[in-house]
Amino acid sequence: SHTIRNEMETTVLASLLLLVAASARPTAMRVRAQARHPAISRLISRPFGASLSRCRVAPVPRTARRTAVGAVKQQFDSFDEMLKQFDLPVLVDFYADWCGPCKLMETELEIVQTALRDKIQIVKIDTEKHANIAQQHKVYGLPTMALFKNGEQVWRFEGAMRADNLVAELEAELKKM
């Protein structure tokens, strides 16, 4: 009886964690309402992303080197400073190294960069290293792509997308500007 109960609790815990991971924007209130076991409640007692506010990015001297997407890797003092650096609209790719769909998007973004080289600038932001920026821009799923014009977000997409579809979406958005 005790073994069966432990197995059931483990199954419930695993199911709940899968539910939290699968949900696009879980909130502590919604998840708490689904939790019936004290151990589960302790695991999810804080809102998703609450720990991100404690992350800080130390100022790094400006450096430059070549990376994927034919881009130059640069360091900026702030996200806003980075957006002001470019005259073109900026497509920001929020990614993480462990994210499979993010890795798939690397090749797609190379195609997009080639197709729209005179129309947009592509910037990649590692959400693990810059969690505060991801939190500020409410990045809940990866990859997330956001198009900024004059420092304002004008378009956003969460998930992977084929290059031809992404080019079409971006061109449609650029025509509105």
Q: How large is the radius of gyration?
A: 20 Å
Q: Count the E strands.
A: 6
CATH architecture of the largest domain: 3-Layer(aba) Sandwich
Order of helices and strands: HHHEEHEHEHEEH
Net shape = globular
Total discrete domains: 2
Question: What is the tally of helical segments?
Answer: 7
CATH class of the largest domain: Alpha Beta
Briefly note the CATH topology name of the largest domain. Glutaredoxin
**The biggest beta sheet, please?**
4 strands, mixed
Distance between the termini: 66 Å
**Helical percentage:** 40-55%
Describe what is shown at a glance.
The chain has 177 residues and is of the alpha+beta class.
Describe it.
- This protein has 177 residues and is an alpha+beta fold.
- The chain folds into two domains: 2-48, no CATH class; 64-176, Glutaredoxin (3-Layer(aba) Sandwich).
- The chain is built from seven helices and six strands, in the order αααββαβαβαββα.
- It has helices spanning 2-22, 28-34, 38-43, 79-85, 100-115, 131-136, 163-176; strands spanning 64-66, 72-74, 90-95, 121-126, 144-149, 152-158.
- A four-stranded mixed sheet has the order 4-3-5-6. A two-stranded antiparallel ribbon has the order 1-2.
- A hairpin with a 2-residue loop joins β5 and β6.
- α5 crosses α7 (163-176).
- It starts with a helix and ends with a helix.
- InterPro entries: Thioredoxin-like_sf, Thioredoxin_CS, Thioredoxin_domain.
- GO terms for molecular function: protein-disulfide reductase activity.
- Residues 54-175 form the Thioredoxin domain.
- Keywords: Disulfide bond, Electron transport, Redox-active center, Signal, Transport.
- This is Thioredoxin domain-containing protein.
